[in-house]
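Notebook entry, cofactor series.
This is the third protein in the set we're modelling with a bound small molecule. For this one the ligand is NAP. I'm keeping the input format identical across the series so the outputs can be compared line by line later. Sequence and SMILES below, as received.
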Amino acid sequence: MDIALFGFGCVGQGLYDALGQSHGFKAGIQKIGVKDRHKPRKIALDHFSFDRHEILGRSDIQAIVELVDNAEDALDIVRTAMQRGLHVVSANKKLLAEHFSTLFQLQQDKGVALLYEGACAGSIPIIRNLEEYYDTETLRSISGIINGSSNYILTRMDKDGLDYHTALAQAQELGFAEIDPWLDVAGFDPKYKLVLLVVHAFGVIFKPEAVLNLGIQNISAFDIEHAALKGQRIKLVAYAAQHGNQLQAYVLPRLVGHESNLVNIDNEYNAVEIEGAFSGKQLLVGKGAGSYPTGAAVLSDVAALSHQYRYEYKKLHQNIAANGHGLHELHTDFTLRLYIRYTHETELALLDIKETIEQYTSPRAKYLIAEVGFASLYALQGKENKLFVAVV
Ligand SMILES: NC(=O)c1ccc[n+]([C@@H]2O[C@H](COP(=O)([O-])OP(=O)(O)OC[C@H]3O[C@@H](n4cnc5c(N)ncnc54)[C@H](OP(=O)(O)O)[C@@H]3O)[C@@H](O)[C@H]2O)c1
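Returned structure with ligand:
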């Protein structure tokens, strides 16, 4: 198998090392596409090219691996490669979630594979499990911790008493965070992954903008202490579940107790819980970010390509046969019980509070436990909002 690699950063170098040390599988990297001509490289410069069109025009490659940090460039690289009949492996969840319908259609039209295990929960083999093992089972829900840097921040705040900004800086230093950490801490990154999981778990395509994501960017030490007093911890949880003919899907912080499988998932670890109608609950745990865990998932995809593996999207094809497009409405007409920490009462005006269960005011903080209409939470998305909200 001869391939070209785009991107030689955190994940690209992880893949390079993992491939070099793999005993069972060999692939030749014919060229590595990068951007910065002045950056020092740890391997000889003749491995690199700065011309993506020269690489994509080569006749000696069957596939490309796209590991660049720029979604627009990545879209051009992936689309051009597929149009030229090249198979693609990508770890770029933003690109995949935002352009899913187009990229799905290109796979069908060009007969090429697009694999993206590394885009979802790092080293956890979740997409292929959903495709191959759970393809025949009706799933009730899929949920989990699928953003390594947020989980790292929450763990360090909880266990070491670090403040939010120090914990975030550590996550960035360790290579867990996206270039723009807002994507992680505000819950966009796990939302993109959730969109991909929903395709394979339920056969449904959601546009990312339809899925609610509230993150941990407003969390304080008070919130962590509040959870601890109740014997709970705060985790950022992505959740999708079947409700009749509709699906609920959202990313929200959640107070989890010791009965939850997610309570002891710490640092950059991720966990995905699948609940099947027949199989019951199952949990997959592994490192959700970082050079080698993600590189290992990408390597597994490259090896899968070498024996002609591709996603069959069985559940999606069933839905397309039933409704013509596979797109679905989200179920948003329900209430959630929430912990809401606020500074001024006016901040609560955006929320459709149906019932207040508990109200707390002290010089240090104010919070409510309340039943809130889910649809009103969309108004909290954005940098100007300062509330911290968690599912109780
Ligand atoms: N880091 C993780 O733990 C992790 C986990 C899962 C998925 N991912 C995803 O994996 C992808 C790569 O992430 P990363 O952390 O490896 O990023 P990174 O360390 O910032 O590296 C990005 C690489 O992309 C290259 N690049 C940027 N624009 C390019 C272009 N137009 N043509 C060719 N190369 C270009 C850069 O080139 P230069 O070297 O010249 O700057 C660099 O080598 C992203 O989509 C990310 O979301 C990352």
